[in-house]
Amino acid sequence: MGHWLARNIVEPGKLPLLLALGAFVLTFLVTRVITRLIRAGRGPFRNIRPGGLHVHHVVPGVVLMVVGGFAAVAEGRHGFGAAVAAVLFGMGAGLVLDEFALILHLDDVYWTEQGRKSVEIVVLTAALVALVLAGFSPFGVNELTPDELQNRTIVVTNTLVNFLLALVSLAKGKPRLALIGAVVPLVAIVGAVRLARPGSPWARRFYRRRPRARRRARVRAYRHDARWAAVRIRIHDLLAGAPDR
């Protein structure tokens, strides 16, 4: 483990990225626990309301991202300062993306159905950063053998293809399959090859003159939602908390 860490993380200068990812995930989890305790009226935590104004945690998140970002630019990728900057940036990103839905809708939708987008964005962000940290990049590591370079290139190519399939799945109106498929190989191909959901960018572009495809897409979407809606709601409630009804 130590050899892998030194060769794939420290040597290419990715240690700050690892620290930022750890701070990002930990901050998101701690924030979700605290907000759920505040919502339930338990524990010592309360909303911050100076002068009656509710200060959302996206505000300190932006401050931490700005400070950490500029400090990282000034320090580079090595040294104690770079590590501190990475942690500050990761903490800020965790606070900001936890309220991504608020920024998107310009409204306090944290405990609503729209607020679930924040959790999906956090999971996708953490997964993509973890892929960069996996050590599969053929660049930045010295003294690679031809076999190591070939293996890394193959993995990078497969990752790019998988990511393109995830984009197609997203265009077909299947964000959850795209989210999982960006991390787990071959999952995105299911969303990429099947019919697009009605109203998705893909359906609007390619099904305009195909009434049979539009009809099949509506029927398939209805059956899929009827089968999996309850399971999806339970998983979302577990991760993000049940929305206000």
From TrEMBL:
Q: Does the keyword Transmembrane apply?
A: yes
The organism sits in which domain of life? Answer: Bacteria
Could you tell me the keywords of this UniProt record? Answer: Membrane, Transmembrane, Transmembrane helix
- Membrane-crossing ranges are 15-34, 55-74, 80-106, 118-141, 153-170, 177-196
Q: What is this protein called?
A: Integral membrane protein
Origin organism is Streptomyces hesseae
Task: Tell me the classification of the organism that encodes this protein.
Answer: Bacteria, Bacillati, Actinomycetota, Actinomycetes, Kitasatosporales
